């Protein structure tokens, strides 16, 4: 019995030594893969590629590969990372969908709360409420009046169930207590195309997708979804929904970084430390600001605060999604 106990103790010590050695060597020149659960070229993909470059600098120049594993509203890519070896070489970068898929999908092959290590929040992307070029309303007050006088006749587009624009639209309808017809598309591009053509009336989408259209005066901007006006030249004169009468209305599409559950604590610390350095990289900040995004510099860069924030977002979006019956399965 004593011999068995001694062997068990030695095995445990060897395992601990191996983990410690791995953590000290990490990443050790081995490539890191960041899984993005969306197609290449979209807003989340752009954030991932910019962050990969900033992280590379803070991780001794290690190669960081972005793997676009799209499909099923981000759940395929999320599941891929949840099942990955927890060694720090496979990470997940995703957006607010981490907090909404648990409500949108009744059955998931992973648990958002227990299958991931939360590493830190990356950015906040504001949203804009925009209208077709020839829409009758000139400001948010007139828009609200117009919607109320046309119950069920106003078409509100979105980029698909579970998309950022879908979530923003649900919250907007809930706050306005408005009866609008929701029109889902397979992506933001076709939704904006139909908005420009007048097939739909309104769209609420990320600044990363709408700023260029607003700059070119191809759409009618009504409001931004932050509590303060934005500093971006093309958006600085657009009022907030809060000042337009929807008090405390605020919604941003944030991005966060995750690792598989069970990744060694020393590796997680190295990754979180590298993330904090990356988020202060002037080049990364400039790129994000160019997309209309705000790089996170508050306590949400800490793993515990990141997870706490996501849980609060689940509680926030859940009732709205359930009330609308907006399920993806």
TrEMBL record:
Species of provenance: Variovorax humicola
Classification of source organism: Bacteria, Pseudomonadati, Pseudomonadota, Betaproteobacteria, Burkholderiales
Classification via Pfam families: TctC (PF03401)
The protein, known as: Tripartite tricarboxylate transporter substrate-binding protein
Keyword Signal (UniProt): yes
Source species, domain of life: Bacteria
Family statement: Belongs to the UPF0065 (bug) family.
Record-linked PANTHER family: BLR1237 PROTEIN (PTHR42928:SF5), TRICARBOXYLATE-BINDING PROTEIN (PTHR42928)
Annotated keywords: Signal
Signal sequence interval, chain numbering: 1-23
